Amino acid sequence: MAAMGLLAPNGRATGEVRFAGANLLTARESELNAIRGNTLAMVFQDPMTSLTPHMKVGRQLTEVLQRHRGLGKAAARDQAIAMLRRVQIPEPERRFVMYPHELSGGLRQRVMIAMALLCGPRLIIADEPTTALDVTVQAQILDLIRLARDETGTSIILITHDLGVVAGLADRVAVMYAGRIVETGEVRRIFKTPQHPYTQGLLACTPRLDDAATAALRTIPGQPPNLQRLPPGCAYHPRCPYVMDRCRTNRPALLPAAVGGMKACFLDDLHLKAAS
Amino acid sequence: MWSYFLRRVAIGIPTLWVIITVCFFLMRLTPGGPFDFDAPVPAEILANLRAQYHLDDPLWRQYLDYLWNLLRGDFGPSFKYRDFTVTTLIAQGFPVSLQNGLSALVLAIVVGVPLGIVAALAQNTRRDYIVSAAAMTGIVIPNFIMGHMLILIFGVWAKDSIFHLPAGGWENGALTHRILPVLCLALPYIAYLVRITRGSMIEAMRANYVRTARAKGLPFRLVVLRHALKSALMPVVTFLGPATAFLLTGSMVVETIFQIPGIGRYFVQGALNRDYTLVMGVTIISAALVIAMNLVVDMLYGLLDPKVRYDGR
Ligand code: SF4
């Protein structure tokens, strides 16, 4: 949201978001508008409410093309329908003149993806794109995202809680806790040898196929952090099984880890391996 | 859509009938009658009068007669304005109220809705506070005070300036005589419209689809006009339906203060004089308008929200 300049009025972001040579956090609205929907597109979490209810689907697509590509009505219509077809929406001409409420959740998310792809963006930020959908539809949408990535070569930042989605789609992973990155790395490495206690905890929570059917679901003990009042030092320390004295006062920096990637934790890698 | 429309009209008729019936008997139940004169009047004259207006018939008889006449478009004779029928009185008064009401309505929409949008988009800034506070003031001042304040300001204090406006009277609808009453009618509605528009606009701007529209890189103006405004207008339309009906049938208070010969003033005088037929006539017109405006509102929903369907039950 911060990267797109879409934070709520009371939201604050610090740091820097560099995209194609500009810092998006400090860019003016007009500069952002030239980028948003064009080279940087977004797919939102909830397709049921993310389309304007009183506009036909087609119009919501063509306005992007008219804005960024300066296309005329007819040309925009043709391109939009072609895009609907590419995201595998059956009967795109008919869907083009429908209102969002006449489409299923899965179709709407396809429309959202089509919308994001329209201008051939260099980067798509997908914020939990499948959370609001049925499981079977989720899989279809993920396939579609993968296809879009492979066909167009666009980069995708996928934000999700679902480790299965991560394993299936991602190349590089950044694990976040309390608004900060605590570990980054190549996807296999993260799943095989997680370096941060939070990542370990997350992975330990995933139910496995070979678990006994009666086994209780595992959880990370403690409460998720209150983002308004983060604990001092390492934000994870109230819940961390390895917590040390300095974790309570100092915040660990994100530094290269021995096995590759980066992590923000005072523990050294050896210790972690021994513990796990 | 047409069948829906016709069905609604069909439902409106029994509604109107219930209103007429309740109103008829309520009027007769109020103490006093149209021929309670201040000075004593000989009994024979009273009896004559009562006979002439059929007030000595049994009540059910009067009621049926009244309904029958109504069906033929006859509101009956006025009890007080002896030489006029209620139909003529309404025909004289209604256009006056209608013109004033329409002017006030247009003024209220043209000023109130944009101001509400401006306040919403500038939420929690000084501009918003000023507009909202002004609107709140407009709502809390009752119009009989507002009317007299306007008269005081423009009719008395501004006596010798170019802002001087007549304090009352109608003069066959001279422009200067219309300004103050229309202003007085419109001000509370402007205030309400500002508040309603501001609230619904703030809500609409928070909607997910408005976020999508912004993520598309649309200029802010388009985001507001194309994506947010339409859903923000729903509550405005809901409010405007009955508001229009009330405005068009003339405000009793405003027409009384400014001495305007509209049906609002007839209503007040009719009620004071127990002029049964006159009060009934104005009530029926108002009720019919309220019913009609509610129907108009429901039809407008269909334009604003494609989810509204008029088929089915
Ligand atoms: S820094 Fe300390 S508290 Fe934080 S994750 Fe590492 S060991 Fe746990």
How is this structure best described in words?
- The complex is a heterodimer of chains A (276) and B (313).
- By secondary structure, chain A is α/β, with parallel strands linked by helices.
- Chain A folds into 2 domains: 27-170, P-loop containing nucleotide triphosphate hydrolases (Rossmann fold, 3-Layer(aba) Sandwich), CATH 3.40.50; 173-209 and 232-275, no CATH class.
- Chain A is built from 10 helices and 9 strands.
- In chain A, the strands form 3 sheets. Chain A has a 4-stranded antiparallel sheet. Chain A has a 3-stranded parallel sheet with strand order 3-4-5, with helices on one face.
- In chain A, helix 3 crosses helix 5.
- Chain A is globular, with a radius of gyration of 21 Å.
- Chain A starts with 17 loop residues before the first strand and ends with a helix.
- The mean pLDDT of chain A is 83.
- Chain B is flat.
- Chain B starts with a helix and ends in a 9-residue tail after the last helix.
- Chain B has helices at residues 2-29, 43-52, 59-71, 86-121, 126-140, 143-157, 175-205, 208-215, 220-248, 252-257, 263-272, 276-304.
- Chain B has a domain at 93-273 and 287-304: MetI-like (MetI-like fold).
- The mean pLDDT of chain B is 85.
- In chain B, helix 11 (263-272) crosses helix 12 (276-304).
- Chain B is mainly α and 313 residues long.
- Classes of the chains: A alpha/beta (276), B mainly alpha (313).
- The interface between A and B is medium-sized, with 32 and 25 residues.
- The complex binds iron/sulfur cluster.
Comma- or semicolon-separated keywords:
heterodimer, A: alpha/beta, Rossmann fold, 4-stranded antiparallel beta sheet, globular, B: 313 residues, mainly alpha, MetI-like fold, 73% helix, binds iron/sulfur cluster
